[in-house]
Amino acid sequence: MDKKSVIAQICAGTFDFKNTNLPAYEIGRITEDYAAGLIMEQKYDEAFAFLSTILFTKDRAAGVVLITEDNMLLYQMTEIYLMERNIKGITTDIWNRFPDTKDFLEFEYRLKFMLRKIWFGMSEAEWFDEFVTLMSDGRITIELLTVVTKYSVPSSVLVYMLECIKLFINGPSKDRLDMYIGQLKENGYVLKREKTYLARDMQNDIVRRDVDATLEEDLYLKDRDAFKSMLESREIYDDKMAFILCANDETYTKEVFKYLKHCKLDGMKAEMIVVKNAKSMCEGYNKAMHLSDARYKFYIHQDTFIVDSCLPYHCKELFCEDEKLGMLGIAGSIDLGENAKWWSAEKKNMCLYQDDLMQIIESLSYGIVEGQEATGYTSAKAMDGIFLATSKDVPWREDLFDHWHFYDISGCFEHRRRGYITGIVNSDHMTVLHDTTTKKDKDSFYDRYGEVFLGEYMDE
User: N or C, which end of the chain is more exposed by having fewer CB within 10 Å?
Assistant: First the structure.
């Protein structure tokens, strides 16, 4: 099928996403190129209508394919253009201010990181200088600020956030912002500030350590039994926590560190180990595990921000209450189906915000297993690697998972093989914020490692 036919069928709603032979990655690229072409031809209203149709589709199968990072960025930039085009004083449109979506994305995340600090109640000292720098950048307008704010916070606090920003704006820009706030209120948005769980003034003494994985010996692959014996025989400190992440983006790493400094430690020592140049998550985690003598280790993604300051310490207390508890998470499933995808399981527990560029998804659900009402956690068969806390050093299966997928669920099974319990923290509020990726897996690595996982564990 040629590209024109694909676009025509998508626009008509007749494209069969479930039975097509075209790879999802290729379909996504076709729509991105089509939208970019409309913009190049200055058909902005047509581009906005097309992007609106594909990004807000109710067809789940279509959404998985069409909701791509570039499509979302083009949509936001077109929305900004349409708001700005009749504003006097804006002489350079957004396409000239940001010639590439990557430029816009980089600027958007600087703005988003600053906005989150306001949202979660950090002190003005932690964000005001960045606010001034951003507002002094010639590329920003009130329209851009309004659109990015809309997609950076839950809709329930959007008006509150814009009212906070308005306090620091003057002149015609303030009048326009006031107009946009009025329009939101007319459409049912209300001024509301939700409770957050980040300790505003806490600044602990967490130490950062950077590790280059290429300079550390591959002890696990060299001799798995010797690696296990080393872990079991070394001295571990019960008054110490380690936050471990594999990273390739220093901007994110610094931002994660700012949130960790707000975590409750209650006298415990803490370190953040940043593993760079790891070939896989398992390799990075094994090398960090070997280097840290902390009893309590927290394995987090480089784009995961702990917004409940008590979460790590709460996990530590749950571990202390139950010696058989080996691993805790904040998202996963009580059971696991034959496809090994925990999010498609019937019984799921989650307590996190997910930011997918176009919205903040509030994922909060938990069901307590009978007999565990007083434990503070719910036994889970599979948990997501967004956030995993451990009190036992169980090696990550670097021999099986030499990429970035299924290491987390494998870790759950490895803990249970040793007789430990794996569970999801019971929480009635959000504990972390995770930036979810919309980049497509064109090489199908996820499915490949899913098959590896099934071959190793699904009889258990």
Answer: C
